[in-house]
Write a structure and sequence with these properties.
The complex is a heterodimer of chains A (1020) and B (197). Chain A is mainly alpha-helical and 1020 residues long. Chain A is built from 45 helices and nine strands. The longest helix of chain A is centred in the middle third of the chain and has 21 residues, at 453-473. Chain B is 69% helix and 5% strand. Classes of the chains: A mainly alpha (1020), B mainly alpha (197).
Chain lengths: 1020, 197
C-alpha cells in the first residue's frame, strides 16, 4: 500500500471514529462512490477496530486467586467457541455445562467442565495443557472423547468433552434387569476400555458407576478419564491444603488402599476401582459400608479390612436400601450349554410368575460362589501388585469363567506376603520388633517339638503372618526412624535363629534372609551380607544349587555387595541369580525385573552402558506390565534407562525417557516415606542431568530432610542424598553452602562407608570442584589427589572415571600456578584416553590452558583447535564442554590481541548458559568476564563497562579475594580509563592487580596480565 | 564494587539530563547501559518461565530504571528512559519469541503480562512476531505509541510528554494503530480460546 493511500485511509478512519453510527454509513457511501476498493479497505479497518480478544487487548476483570464458582443464576453465554445451553451439574471441583458448537459447518453437543480455582501460573497452565493433550489422544468407542480445552477469560481452565446421555452402569443393570452373564459381559466392555487407556499410560483414578454411563442403545461410555489428575489441587494450585493423605479428595467408597495411604497411583489402582464396580454390579451392594464414618475410620477399613465374598452378600431384590440390585426373574436362567452342572440350571418359564425372593437370593449367590468370588477378590487385593496385572487379565478370567474353564485367581501364601513386603518397603524396626522376635524365640521351641512337616509349615506361616503384621505397624513412615534399639534386638534375634532353627535349615535360611533384609534396610550392609551369605550357603546345601531360593540369595548377597561398592563380585552374583531365575520361571516376573535392574545399575557404574541399557529395557517391560509405569520400581528403572541413554550419547532417547519418568511423579507434597524420598532424589538427579538446576536443588533438599527423618544420620541413603544436594547447591552457584554440605557428607561417608567407597570418592571429588570454584586451589588439589590415588589402584588407565579424576585434578593445579604438575596430570589423562576420546576434550583444553599460562600462544592455539575439533565431532552442539573450551579459548584470543573476534562466540555461550543458569551465577560471571574483555579489546569500552559490571554482580558468591574479582576490577578500570575517567579507572586497575597478587602470587600468569594492563594504562 | 554501582547510577542520571537537553552522544552512551540491564533482567525472568513465573515487562523496565538511575529522579527523565527501554523490550520479547518458536519442545506459549497487575495473558510466539512485523509498517508516531504503551506500560500522560502531544492525540493514535495492526495480523478475526463475554 502506498504511503499516500495509507495516509488517506488514516484520515478517513479519523472521520469514522468521530462520527455517529449513522454518520459512519454516510462516510462509507461517499468513499465507496469515489473508490470501491478504498471503501473495502476502510471497512476492513473498521472491522479490525471492532475486533476484541487480540494481542493488544488485556482481558477484562482481574483473576483473583481462589475465585469461586459463578453465580448460578447467570450462565455464561459462550465458552470458547461453544454456546452454553444449560447447566448439567456442579460438584466440588467445578461446574459442568451443556453446550453446543454451531458455526455453520459443524453442529455438536458437548459437555464443558469448568474448573474453579483455576490454573494461575504458567507452569500450572502448561501442566494442565500437557495433561489435556494426553487425554485428548484417547480414542476408543467406549471412552468419552475429550475434544478441547482452554482457559476462560477469567482464568479458569475448562475441558470440552463428548456429551453422553445415559444411566450410570449400576442403575442401567437394575432398570433393565440384566442377568449375571449380561452384567459380566457389560463389565468386560468397560474393562477393555480401561485397558486401552492403560496402554496409553493414562490412569483413570476415579472409576465408579457415575463415571460409567450406558446409553439407551446399550453403549458404554467411560467419563472423566484421567481428569482426577487434572483436578488435583496440587496440580492447579487451588486453595485446598493437602492433608496427610489427601483423604478429602476422594470418594471413600471407591478409594483404593494406596490412594488412602498417599502412595503412587498406578494402573493397579484402576483395577481396584473396576473391582468395586464389578462387586456392585454382581451383588447390588458395595463391599464396604462407609456411610457416616469419619475419614480415619473409613481409611482404616479400606486399608486393612478384607472385603466380604460377593456370594455371601448378594441381594437381588430391591427391598434393601441404597444399592439394591433388581435382578429379573428371567435373569436366573443360565443356558444349559455353559453350565453342565444341573444344580445351576433353572428352566426359563416366564409364565410361571416370579420365584420367591429367598430362592432368588439363593440362586444368585450360588452363581457367584467360587470362581466369581475369587475373581472379584483378586481385583480388590490391598497390595496393588497382587491384583490382576492389567484390566485385560480380568476380562480373560471372566471369559474363562463363562466358558467353564479354570480361572487364574487364587489365594496367596503368607510367606510370599512377608517377603514381598520386606523387600519392597524400607522398614525401621521399633518396639514392635521386640515382640516379633521374642515370639520367634518362643514359637521356635514349639516348632522343634512339633515334628510333622505340615504342622511346621503351618506354624511358620502363622509366625510369618505375625511378623508381617507387626512390621506393617512399624512402618518407618510412622515410627520415623527409631532404629537404635532395633540393632540390639536384631543381633539377638539373629543369634537365636541360628541356635533354635539348627534342625530346620530351610526355615533357618529363610529367616536369616529376612533378617538380613532388615539389616540392609537399616544400612548395615556388612552385617546383612554375613547373614545373607549364611542363608545362601544353607540353601545351596539343602535346596539345590539352581533352586529359586538359591537364586534369591544370590540376588540378595549381590545387592548387598553392590551397596558396599564391590562392583565386580556384585555383577557376578546378580548375574547368577538372574540366570537361575530365568531358567526356573515360565514368565518374567517383577522379582526378575528387579534383579535385572540391580544388575544394570552395577553395569552402568562399571561403564558398561550398552549392556546396562539393554537390561533396563527388559526390566522396564516387565515392571510396566506387572507393576504399572507409575510404580516406584518402574520409575527407578526408567531413570536408569534414561541415564544409560545419556551416557551412550543418545540424548534424544534419553530426553524422551526422562520425560516419561518425570511425568509419573507427583512431587507436590509428600510426607516422609522411603519410597517418596527415593522418588524425590531420582527426580532431582533427572533434573540435574537435564540442566534444570533450579528445580533440582529444592527437590534434593527435601530428599535430605525426608531421609534424615527416616534414618540414622550415617545411613548410606542419607549420605547419598546429602551428596546430591551438595552438588545441586553447587550447580546453582551457592558455593559456600555447597561446600558446607559436601564437607558434612564427606565426613559421614568417611566414617560409615569408608575412605574408598564409590560414594565417598564421588563426594570428595564434588567437594574438590566447589573448592576449585571458590578459589581454594590448594585444598581442591589435595582433595582430588587422594581420590586419584585410590582410583589409580582400582581402575584401568583408560577408565573414564579415572580420566575425569585426573582432569579435575589438573585444573586446580593450573589455577594455582603449579603448571608442571598440572601438565603432568593432563598428560597422564591423555595417555590413558587417547587423542580421539570424548573425555580428551577437556584434557586437551586443560593442556591448552597450561600452555597459555606459560605464554606459549602457538602451542595453546593448536591444542584449542584440536579440542574444539574433537568436540564438534563427538558432542552435540551447545554441549557444556564445548562452552567451557570456547570460553577458555577466548583468553587465548585476548592474549593474541584478537579478543574482538570472540564477541559473537561469547555472546552465544552467554545465551546458552542463560538458559540453564539464572543471574547471579558465577558460571555467567565467568562468561561475562571474558566478554567484557573482548568488548574492551574491540574498542567499545562503554559496552565493556556495562558487561563487566554485570560480571561482578554474577560473581556474588565467590570471595572478594578471588583473583577473578581482581581481574574484572582491572578490566573495568581499563574500560573507565578508555572513556576518560582516569582517576577512577587507575584506582580499579591498581586494586585489581593487588587482589590477584594476594590470591595467586606475583609470579602467576594471572598477575602478569593485570600488571601489564596497569602498566599500559599508566603509559597512556 | 559498591562504589562503582553508584558511579554508574550517577552517570545515568546525568546522561538522562543530557538526553533531555538534546545531547545525542549521551543517548549513545545510555542505550547500551539500558539495553544490557534490561536484557539481563529479561533473561532471568524469561527463563524463570519454566517454573511458572510470568514476565512483567513493565515491572522489568521499571526495575531496570531503578537499578540504573535510582528512584528520585524527575518524571521527564523517567519518561525518556522508558522510551528507550520500550524499544529494547520489544526487541527482547520478539527475540525470545523467535527462539521459543524454534525450540523443539514445549515452545507453544509465551507468557507475558503486559499490563499492570492484571491477569496473565498468553501469546503465541507467532502472534508476537507478527506484531513485530506489523509494527514496522505503521507510521512512526503510531508505532511509538504502541511500543510505549504495550511494551513499556507507560501511561498516556507519560507518552504524551515524551512525544510532545496531547493526551487525546495519544489515545487516538493508539486506537488507530491498533486497528491497523489488527487488520494486518488478523484478517479473519483473532483466534484463541479466550472467552468473549
Amino acid at each position: 500500500m502506498s504511503d499516500e493511500r495509507r495516509r488517506r485511509l488514516d484520515e478517513l478512519f479519523d472521520e469514522v471514529l468521530d462520527a455517529s453510527p449513522d454518520g459512519r454509513e454516510g462516510i462509507l457511501e461517499r468513499v465507496g462512490a469515489e473508490d470501491p476498493t478504498l471503501r473495502a479497505d476502510l471497512e476492513a479497518l473498521v472491522a479490525a477496530h471492532e475486533r476484541s480478544g487480540g494481542i493488544l487487548d488485556t482481558p477484562g476483570g482481574l483473576a483473583t486467586p481462589g475465585a469461586g464458582l459463578p453465580d448460578p443464576s447467570e450462565l455464561p453465554q459462550r465458552i470458547g467457541i461453544y454456546r452454553v445451553v444449560s447447566e448439567l451439574g456442579r460438584g466440588g471441583m467445578g461446574v459442568v455445562f451443556l453446550a453446543e458448537r454451531d458455526d455453520g459447518q459443524f453442529w455438536r453437543r458437548v459437555a464443558i467442565k469448568v474448573i474453579s480455582g483455576g490454573a494461575r501460573s504458567a507452569d500450572q497452565r502448561a501442566r494442565f495443557e500437557a495433561e489435556r493433550q494426553i487425554l485428548a489422544t484417547l480414542d476408543h468407542p467406549n471412552i468419552a472423547r475429550l475434544y478441547d480445552g482452554g482457559v476462560t477469560e477469567d482464568g479458569r481452565p475448562y475441558l470440552v468433552m463428548e456429551y453422553v446421555d445415559g444411566l450410570p452402569i449400576d442403575e442401567y443393570c437394575r432398570v433393565n434387569e440384566l442377568t449375571v452373564e449380561e452384567r459380566i459381559r457389560l463389565f468386560c466392555t468397560v474393562a477393555r476400555a480401561v485397558h486401552h487407556a492403560h496402554r496409553r499410560l493414562v490412569v483413570h483414578r476415579d472409576l465408579k458407576p457415575t463415571n460409567i454411563l450406558v446409553t439407551n442403545d446399550g453403549e458404554v461410555k467411560l467419563l472423566d478419564f484421567g481428569i482426577a489428575k487434572i483436578l488435583d489441587p496440587s496440580m492447579l494450585g487451588g486453595a485446598a491444603p493437602q492433608t496427610r493423605t489427601g483423604l478429602h479428595l476422594m470418594t471413600p467408597e471407591y478409594a483404593a488402599p494406596e490412594q488412602v495411604m498417599g502412595e503412587p497411583i498406578t494402573t493397579a489402582t484402576d483395577v481396584y476401582g473396576l473391582g468395586i464396580v464389578l462387586f456392585e454390579m454382581l451383588t447390588g451392594r458395595r463391599p464396604f459400608a462407609l456411610d457416616g464414618l469419619a475419614p480415619v475410620e473409613w481409611a482404616r477399613i479400606i486399608v486393612q479390612e478384607l472385603p466380604p465374598l460377593p456370594s455371601s452378600v448378594a441381594e437381588p431384590t430391591s427391598e434393601a436400601a441404597a444399592g439394591a440390585a433388581g435382578f429379573g426373574a428371567e435373569g436366573w436362567s443360565v443356558s444349559g450349554e455353559h453350565h453342565p452342572d444341573p444344580a445351576f440350571y433353572v428352566p426359563v418359564d416366564v409364565d410361571s410368575g416370579r420365584l420367591a425372593a429367598r430362592d432368588q437370593r439363593q440362586r444368585l449367590r450360588r452363581l457367584l460362589r467360587g470362581d466369581l468370588d475369587r475373581i472379584v477378590l483378586k481385583t480388590l487385593r490391598k497390595e496393588p501388585e497382587r491384583r490382576y496385572g492389567s484390566a485385560a487379565r480380568i476380562v480373560e478370567d471372566l471369559e474363562r469363567h463363562l466358558e467353564g474353564r479354570p480361572v487364574e485367581a487364587r489365594a496367596d501364601s503368607a510367606g510370599y506376603r512377608l517377603r514381598k513386603y520386606v523387600s519392597r518397603h524400607r522398614v525401621s524396626v521399633g518396639a514392635a520388633a521386640v515382640v516379633a522376635l521374642s515370639l520367634v524365640g518362643g514359637t521356635a521351641a514349639a516348632l522343634t517339638q512339633a515334628g510333622r512337616a505340615t504342622r511346621q509349615a503351618e506354624l511358620a506361616a502363622r509366625q510369618r503372618d505375625l511378623m508381617f503384621d507387626l512390621f506393617r505397624l512399624s512402618d518407618p513412615a510412622e515410627s520415623q526412624g527409631d532404629t537404635i534399639s532395633a540393632r540390639g534386638i536384631l543381633d539377638r534375634g539373629a543369634a537365636r535363629i541360628e541356635q533354635e532353627f539348627g534342625e530346620e535349615p530351610v526355615m533357618q535360611a529363610a529367616m536369616l534372609s529376612d533378617v538380613a533384609s532388615i539389616y540392609e534396610n537399616l544400612g548395615m550392609f556388612a552385617r546383612a551380607e554375613e547373614l545373607a551369605r549364611r542363608a545362601l550357603e544353607l540353601r545351596l546345601q539343602n535346596q539345590g544349587e539352581r533352586s529359586l531360593e538359591a537364586s534369591e540369595s544370590y540376588g540378595q548377597v549381590g545387592r548387598l555387595l553392590a551397596e558396599q561398592g564391590e562392583r565386580e563380585e556384585a555383577i557376578e552374583l546378580l548375574g547368577l541369580s538372574l540366570d537361575i531365575r530365568q531358567s526356573r520361571i515360565s514368565r518374567p516376573d517383577s522379582i526378575l525385573a528387579r534383579t535385572q535392574a540391580d544388575l544394570a545399575w552395577q553395569l552402568r557404574a562399571g561403564g558398561r552402558h550398552a549392556e546396562a541399557a539393554q537390561l533396563f529395557e527388559q526390566a522396564l517391560q516387565v515392571q510396566q506390565d506387572l507393576l504399572g509405569i507409575d510404580h516406584p520400581e518402574a520409575a527407578s528403572t526408567l531413570f536408569g534407562l534414561a541415564v544409560s541413554h545419556h551416557e551412550l550419547g543418545q540424548f534424544d532417547e534419553a530426553e524422551a525417557v526422562f520425560e516419561r519418568a518425570l511425568a509419573r511423579f507427583d512431587t507436590a507434597t509428600m510426607r516422609p516415606h522411603p519410597v517418596a524420598a527415593e522418588a524425590l532424589l531420582n527426580i532431582a538427579m533427572i533434573r540435574r542431568l537435564r540442566s534444570q538446576l533450579y528445580d533440582a536443588e529444592p527437590l534434593a533438599a527435601s530428599a535430605v530432610k525426608m531421609r534424615e527423618a527416616l534414618y540414622d544420620p550415617t545411613h548410606p541413603d542419607v549420605i547419598e542424598a546429602l551428596s546430591e544436594w551438595g552438588v545441586s547447591l553447587r550447580d546453582v552457584g551457592r558455593y559456600e553452602d555447597s561446600e558446607r554440605v559436601l564437607a558434612d557428607a564427606l565426613d559421614r561417608a568417611n566414617r560409615s562407608l569408608g575412605f574408598d567407597h564409590p560414594l565417598t570418592l564421588t563426594t570428595r571429588e564434588r567437594r574438590g570442584t566447589v573448592l576449585f570454584h571458590l578459589g581454594r586451589y590448594a585444598e581442591a588439589a589435595a582433595t582430588v589427589d587422594s581420590s586419584i590415588a585410590v582410583k589409580r589402584d582400582r581402575l584401568e588407565p583408560d577408565d573414564p572415571n579415572y580420566i575425569m579424576a585426573l582432569s579435575r585434578a589438573g585444573d586446580p593445579n593450573w589455577m594455582a600456578g603449579r603448571l608442571d604438575r598440572a601438565e603432568d596430570l593432563f598428560r597422564q589423562a591423555l595417555d590413558g584416553a587417547g587423542r580421539t576420546s570424548t573425555y580428551s576434550i577437556l584434557v586437551l583444553d586443560g593442556l591448552a590452558n597450561v600452555a597459555l599460562a606459560r605464554g606459549d600462544l602457538v602451542g595453546a592455539d593448536s591444542l584449542f583447535e584440536e579440542s574444539l575439533g574433537l568436540a564438534a565431532e563427538k558432542l552435540r552442539p551447545g554441549h557444556r564442554y564445548t562452552q567451557t573450551v570456547l570460553v577458555d579459548e577466548a583468553f587465548l584470543r585476548l592474549a593474541q590481541g584478537r579478543g574482538a573476534e570472540m564477541i559473537d562466540t561469547l555472546e552465544n555461550v552467554l545465551e546458552i548458559r542463560s538458559e540453564i543458569f539464572h543471574e547471579p551465577h558465577p558460571a555467567l560471571g565467568r562468561t561475562l568476564h571474558p566478554l567484557g574483555a573482548a568488548y574492551l579489546a574491540g574498542g567499545d569500552p562503554a559496552r565493556a563497562e556495562a558487561v563487566l559490571v554485570r560480571a561482578i554482580e554474577n560473581y556474588a558468591t565467590i570471595p572478594d579475594t578471588h583473583w577473578r574479582m581482581g581481574d574484572v576490577s582491572s578490566l573495568l578500570g581499563a574500560a573507565l580509563v578508555a572513556q576518560g575517567r582516569r582517576a577512577e579507572g587507575m584506582r580499579l586497575l591498581r586494586e585489581g592487580h593487588a587482589t590477584v597478587v594476594a590470591h595467586v602470587g606475583p609470579d602467576s600468569w594471572q598477575s602478569r596480565i593485570t600488571a601489564a594492563r596497569l602498566a599500559a594504562a599508566r603509559g597512556s | 564494587m559498591d562504589g562503582n554501582q553508584n558511579g554508574l547510577r550517577g552517570d545515568v542520571t546525568q546522561l538522562l539530563e543530557a538526553v533531555r537537553g538534546g545531547d545525542a552522544r549521551a543517548m549513545d552512551r545510555l542505550v547500551p547501559l539500558v539495553y544490557e540491564e534490561l536484557r539481563a533482567l529479561a533473561r532471568r525472568e524469561l527463563h524463570r518461565e519454566q517454573q511458572g513465573h510470568t514476565l512483567h515487562a513493565t515491572a522489568l523496565v521499571h526495575e531496570a530504571y531503578i537499578k540504573l538511575a535510582g528512584s528520585a529522579v524527575p518524571a521527564s527523565d523517567r519518561a525518556h528512559f522508558l522510551a528507550i527501554a520500550s524499544r529494547a523490550m520489544r526487541q527482547i520479547l520478539v527475540d525470545h519469541a523467535r527462539r521459543r518458536k524454534a525450540a523443539k519442545r514445549g515452545g507453544d506459549m509465551v507468557c507475558t503480562t503486559l499490563a499492570d497487575a492484571g491477569a496473565p495473558v498468553e501469546f503465541r510466539p507467532d502472534e508476537l512476531i507478527a506484531l513485530d512485523a506489523a509494527l514496522e509498517q505503521l507510521e512512526p508516531r503510531q508505532r511509538q505509541v504502541v511500543e510505549f504503551r504495550f511494551f513499556a506500560g507507560m501511561e498516556e500522560k507519560e507518552i504524551a510528554d515524551v512525544l510532545g502531544v496531547t493526551d487525546r492525540t495519544v489515545r487516538r493514535e493508539w486506537v488507530k494503530a491498533r486497528a491497523w495492526l489488527y487488520r494486518s495480523m488478523y484478517p479473519d478475526g483473532p483466534s484463541g480460546s479466550t472467552a468473549t463475554r
